[in-house]
Amino acid sequence: MANPSEHIVKSYDEELKQLNTLINRMGGVVETQLDGAIQAVLRRDPEMAERIVKGDGQVDEMEQEVGALVIRLLALRQPMAVDLRHIVSSLKIAADLERFGDHAKSIAKRAIAISQVPRIPAPGLDRMARMVQAMIKDVLDAYIEGDTNKAIRVWRRDAEVDQLYNSLFRELLTYMMEDPRNITGCTHLLFIAKNVERMGDHATNIAETVHYQVKGTQLPDDRPKGDDPSFAIADHNG
Amino acid sequence: MTRHLELKTAVMNKKSEDQTEAPLRNVPRTKISATHVDVFYGEKQALMDVNLDINEREVTALIGPSGCGKSTFLRCLNRMNDVIDICRVKGDILLDDRNIYDRAIDVVQLRALVGMVFQKPNPFPKSIYENVAYGPRIHGLASTGEELDEIVMSSLGRAGLLNEVKDRLNEPGTGLSGGQQQRLCIARAIAVSPEVILMDEPCSALDPIATARIEELIDELRANFTIVIVTHSMQQAARVSQRTAFFHLGNLVEVGDTEQIFTNPSDKRTQDYITGRFG
Amino acid sequence: MTDVPDSGQFARSPAAERVSASLKRRYAAEKRFRLYGLVSILAAISFLLFLLGSIVSNGYSAFWQSQIRLEVEFSKADFDPKGTDDPKVIGGANFNAPIRDALRKLFPAVEGRANLRRLYGLISPSAPFTLRNMVLADTSLIGTRQSVWLPASSDVDVFVKGQIDVSVPEDARRIKDQDIAWIQALQERSDVELQFNTALFSNGDSRDAEVAGIWGAVVGSFYALLICLVLSFPLGVMAAVYLEEFAPKNRWTDLVEVNINNLAAVPSIVFGLLGLAVFLNFFDLPRSAPLVGGMVLALMTLPTIIIAARAALKAVPPSIREAALGVGASKVQTITHHVLPLAMPGMLTGTIIGMAQALGETAPLLMIGMVAFIVDIPGGPLDPATVLPVQVYLWADSPERAFVERTSAAIMVLLAFLISMNLLAIILRKRFERRW
């Protein structure tokens, strides 16, 4: 972690390492989950989707493991300052990763549905997913290295994800307006895109947590956001 | 939060109490102000250039590893270091803007204003009543027996001891349990109506329940007294104080709000100490 | 556990093996050490028992005194012819005559001045004084005839107690065969008895052993010790308080401390010389007075008290002082309200031990003249007096056989006082012993 010097009581350091390892593993698993879910959508592969859905159980288990370790550390070690922030942050990060995994699971479920309807081209989705994959990988690197600059860069990249989501939203709207038979497929895709966008938000949450853990202060509230589709009104006229 | 801190510091740096300004909510007044304090034991320097302000009606904790000078600093505040021949104190320590090391100051009067509770409970080998009544008696705080009784009863009550001892006031103070003895010493200290109470590791000889009682007592007392507590236990400092000062090798390394010191200290030495990275 | 370990040996780690190997040697050394201690104690006790045994065996007989019963006529004509009832007149009468008359009546056959003188010699020369005191105390005796017990002379007393070897030829002893015959005649009539010797405790010194007593010496000792206590205790305590609490710790105070310790070891006769030179010669105080004796003893006891008082003050834990100072007591208040009361038992113990030592001092008091033969009981500290150990010395010096037992008796009384004073010190110490 950021602080190079070791605790006088070595077992304390070992338990903190254990925490880090858990988070890392969790991060690796959810990265794989996202990858697999998107592949299941793009390749219209219901079997892969099933595997992803089942794989979410592992993520939930790991989150509980992290929770138990955090409780144990709080009770037995009375952590202070950077150690306290580290431990509490790990709890928050695990929660975010678990939600990340849940979103991957939702995507996989929708992949099963999508494979049964005619294909709809959605190149933006792949780009968005890859961007979010990069974000989660980078933010976990930032967590390991204690690199707040990397975390801040991840934090900023979410704006691009949001923009991609906006354009994908508009695109899908036009498809739906063109041909009502696309509505089922496009609606699923919309939800999938929303899940990916939410996964990006979780990655930025993790970035904020990493910053707090290292610096002890919060990032300013106004993260650049770009999702105005909330206010987008579809133009039904042609 | 940062804005609040800035305001606080600005007011505390003002020497005069300017009442014409609109009183800011919850801004504490400086009760004791130590500037450029050096303390020598013979040739060895125990404290180096300590600058610390203690706020009124607050609990300030002094933490640090053994031999860092926190007890030495505490004992300067009521001039108990005068008892040690080879100890020399330089610098200014102001109590309500009066230098306590000034020649004109009567040290007996100072110690009536600044009371002390010690690490090992040390009640006088007299009755419980006499223990508490001794201080008021020698300072002439009571002119009749009833007044003295009242002072003793109210001090014991405020120390949370009255109910346990009210029917055995004539028994020797040394017959109480450790925790009760320490509360008796606290009652003895508050009986002379001090403004500041100094506590030198008051709970280090007590079990956790007795410790918790004393901490509760400190919490109640801070409504009326300024308290400075030296403690080895960081958890206790965290529980009990509003401001914490970290001493290391005779230097005051960092002082700040307790919450800030224990969640996000500014100095690496402070962080290393409180997280157990060095003793 | 059903497992019974074999003869106290534990598991076989190499360290444990070495420990058990060395055990035998260690226990043997311990046994030897305890044996040495036991032998030393037994040796000391046997010496003590021997000493006490010899004193007691010599002295216990002094507590009984031979008394002879005589029919004395208290005729008015002899004592108060004019019937004035005036003590001066009665006191001035001849008390020897009635005694001699009574003796002649007992042994009418005795004739001749030499024989009569021997007969009269059976009764103590101080018997008339006993009679005088009797009559003065109860003037109604005049005009009656009473059977009175009068002290026998010391030669008779010594013979009755069997301390004389009568096989020695007559010229080699004081008591002659004729005296023995008379005594035996009296014994047959039960007119000679050993009664408890109250005179030993109520009379002053006397040339006549039969009426010699220690009371004068006891009163002299009492006054001397009183003066000693009054002078040395306050001075010693205050000196100790100053040295311990107020004096700066520098070379001068170290010097003072060394000198006080040395003074405690100075031979006591040197203090006597000092007393002689300063108190008697320079200040011209009365010689042989308990006042001067007390002052000399005070000089001697002062270092003991100062050392004991300092130790008692040092034993008061600094936490008490800090507590008092912390509450706002001044230094003097801390000392008088807290430190002194706590140190007082130790100081008292040291003082009592010092007093016990002073009680037994002889040499310095000899130098200031308390060695004179004083008969009267001293009325105050300025009257000439002697002290118990000096009395012992004087009696030991006397050649008469009767004084041998009295010397031992006086030693027993002195030892009794010393033991009780030391016992008091021990009781006080135990009672006030405090655990912090």
Q: What does the model show?
A:
The complex is a heterotrimer of chains A (238), B (279) and C (436). Helices cover 79% and strands 0% of the residues of chain A. By secondary structure, chain A is mainly alpha-helical. Chain B has a single domain, classed as P-loop containing nucleotide triphosphate hydrolases (Rossmann fold), CATH 3.40.50.300. Chains B and C meet through helix 3, strand 6, helix 4 and helix 7 of B and helix 14 and helix 15 of C.
Provide a compact summary of the structure.
The complex is a heterotrimer of chains A (238), B (279) and C (436). By secondary structure, chain A is mainly α.
Radius of gyration of chain B: 19 Å
Main pleated-sheet profile of chain B? 6 strands, mixed
Q: How far is the first residue's CA from the last residue's CA of chain B? A: 31 Å
- Tally of domains of chain B: 1
Catalogue the unreliable spans of chain B: 15-20
Number of separate helices of chain B? 11
Number of domains of chain C: 3
Order of helices and strands of chain B: HEEEHEEHEHHHHEHEHEEHH
The helix fraction of chain C, in percent, is 55-70%
Number of separate strands of chain C: 3
Q: First CA to last CA of chain C: what distance? A: 42 Å
CATH class categorisation of the largest domain in chain C = Mainly Alpha
* Shape field of chain B: globular
- From the 3D structure, determine the CATH topology of chain B: Rossmann fold
Side by side, the strands of the main sheet of chain B go: 6-7-8-3-9-10
Instruction: Please estimate the helix content of chain B.
Output: 25-40%
Could you say which structural class the secondary elements and strand pairing of chain B correspond to? alpha/beta
What is the CATH topology assignment of the largest domain in chain C?
MetI-like fold
